[in-house]
Specification:
By secondary structure, the chain is of the alpha/beta class. The protein contains 16 helices and 11 strands. A 9-stranded mixed sheet has the order 2-1-3-4-11-10-9-6-7, with helices on both faces. Strands 5-8 form a two-stranded antiparallel sheet.
């Protein structure tokens, strides 16, 4: 499970530590990412048994697809009992990315608290951070903010009408993004009070903080509450995993309706506009569900992470906080 990470730890840290001290990447250097898969081992097993990819794999694929140069990605599992990393171990990385998780940020459990502590270490090290959903909550709490259960319940499936704030419209995370957009999502909890150094960049009716940046200690964390790493297929598999909960809480009238919706998402993935014929074939499905290019086009859907890579990871002065 830790093979890729352990092999990478055998490499020398000296040159990367020097690069961090100067706040610059060496020209031609392979970009190196550390991905924190926030799920517990049981949570990962549930996803895989339901046909979904693990969160770490989704993030690895997204980073590889949107990094314009060669890159290396190491995945670790900070909720596991045997997780242990020192600051010296992470100095080799150009960026640290956090996934979602089914854990609860305010539970006080050990597998949660050690993730919060590790986030503090990354802030101290000054390495740029990015993440989805759970990641935003970890960043908020690590820097001194507050998260709570959303009184409106679980936001799941598609977050509608996410709107950039005035700060968000001018922030580099959203360079090229529409002022209002939809995104894939699944979360119970939300950030309610940002810490000092936090800035709200987007929100919607259901969740007032859908995106934020947090400057803390020596580092900066760009985070979104939604999931740019999902596609229609992965959303379908996640809903399959959560189907019993969704039926119990009235998201679907009955199991047949749930299965029909999941099947539609799979069909959208299979005919998601990779060519003109596919796009025409999927038109009626997109029309029925109100689907636009902000969900179909991965370059639009993942623009936030692309901008993080451009401005934070590959920027000539990464020590500048935004």
């Amino acid at each position: 499970m830790y093979r890729r990470f352990l092999s990478s730890c055998r490499r020398s840290f000296s040159s990367s530590s020097s690069s961090h001290a100067e706040g610059k990447r060496s020209v031609g250097k392979v970009v190196k990412y550390l991905v924190l898969d926030g799920y517990s081992e049981d949570g990962r097993k549930e996803l895989m048994q339901g046909g979904a990819s693990t969160a770490g794999v989704l993030y690895e694929n997204m980073l590889r697809n949107h990094t314009p140069t060669p890159c290396e990605v190491d995945i670790v599992y900070p909720a596991d009992d045997n997780f242990s990393l020192r600051i010296a171990d992470i100095e080799q990385y150009d960026g640290v990315a956090w996934t979602g998780s089914s854990l609860t940020i305010y539970s006080g459990e050990c597998n949660v608290n050690k993730q919060i502590d590790f986030c503090k270490d990354v802030f101290m090290a000054g390495i740029p951070q990015f993440g989805s959903c759970w990641a935003l909550q970890v960043a908020v709490v690590a820097a001194g903010g507050v998260c709570m259960k959303n009184p409106r319940g679980r936001e799941v499936g598609i977050s509608r009408k996410i709107q950039l704030t005035e700060a968000g419209r001018s922030h580099p995370m959203f360079h090229g993004k529409s002022t209002v957009f939809d995104a894939f999502t699944s979360h119970f909890d939300e950030a309610t009070h940002l810490p000092p150094g936090g800035l709200v960049l987007a929100g919607n009716y259901h969740t007032s903080i859908q995106a934020a940046t947090i400057n803390h200690l020596n580092g900066s964390f760009w985070a979104v509450q939604y999931h740019p790493e999902y596609n229609f297929y992965e959303l379908a598999m996640l809903l399959r995993c959560r189907k019993a909960f969704m039926l119990q809480n009235g998201y679907f009238e009955n199991e047949e309706a749930a299965d029909r919706y999941i099947s539609t998402l799979i069909k959208l993935h299979e005919g998601g506009g990779t060519n003109q014929r596919d796009e025409k074939a999927a038109f009626h499905l997109k029309w029925q569900l109100g689907i636009d290019h902000d969900l179909v086009d991965s370059n639009v859907r993942c623009l936030e992470v692309s901008n993080w890579i451009t401005y934070q990871v590959m920027g000539t002065n990464r020590t500048t906080q935004n």
